[in-house]
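Issue: ligand-bound run for manganese (II) ion - logging full I/O for the record.

Environment: standard queue, default settings, no custom constraints.

Inputs:
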Amino acid sequence: MISYGTQLAFRLEDTSGVAVVRRAGSVLARQLQFDEIRAGQLALIITEAATNIVKHVGHGEILLRVLHQKSVTGLETSGVEVIAIDKGPGITDLHLQMKDGHSTAGTYGIGLGAVRRLSHEFDIYTLPDRGTVIWMMIWATEEQPVPAFWQIGVVCVPIEGEEICGDNWAIAGYQRTLTLMVADGLGHGPDAAIAANAAVALVAPLADQTPAVIVQRAHGALQGTRGAAVAVGKIDPDNARLVFAGVGNISVCVFYTNNSRHLLSHNGIVGSNLRKLQEFSEAWESDALLIAHSDGINTRWNIDAYPELRHCHPGLIAAVIYRDFSRERDDATIVVIRESSIFSGTSSSAAEALNG
Ligand SMILES: [Mn+2]
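Outputs:
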């Protein structure tokens, strides 16, 4: 299991933006060899989500990300994750909106129920006057990917106006143990990306090493670059342990059922100034939630201010915090990880609400 990569971010201001993001989706569908039907479904999902934002809210954002995963027959399957983000009035009649065939009066959209049906995976978080985030996953083939032990949510996008993100992240796994890195290259733009990319490139080859060793190796690999803030966490669910090492300004928090822990990074710049490197060990519980983010996200968020959000798909958690707490003047990355509910036995209350 290896996951990494920045997203394509589309800021929507008017209907012309809908066509732009739909075209980008078509390009991805071609690259990933979606068949015609699946490509059409992806286009419908994107169009509906983007049109809803423009029509009912006025502006918002669509994020697209490519995923590769092993399918149940061992073949690699590819998919596109679509996240639709707005700060609009929220959907107050979600049950009604989710009914198949229901579409908002006066529009010719296919409706949220159809979007949900066309997506292989779907989750939604909406609050009155605070907006809506929809997380959707569509795979290239009918063949579903193997259920993953970990659920991962990510937003990793450049500062507005930049094409290249100076933050990056990577996750590599060996069996059930997961290693995560979030790296923020100094400043932003291509030179920042060189530093961040050099750091995250180490995660897969060094996945069997400890977090301190990985940060130390990153320090060597980043010599001659601008340098980066780097945080590495390794979660071993079988031994109920999380080991962590960080240098620079990456914020990492673990939420347990009744409390939470902020994980400490030391000051410094990986690649130029590594004064102190220290590993910390924390408990990991099967229902724990880890949230790591670069300083492009303000640290003032409080997950408990969002009822039920922590039980939603991590993609929604990442997108809601990004929407409400990203700083305008920096690249932003947030990664949210927890064990898949299929394995931990807890069910998504959002799914229950939708089905109920
Ligand atoms: Mn930054």
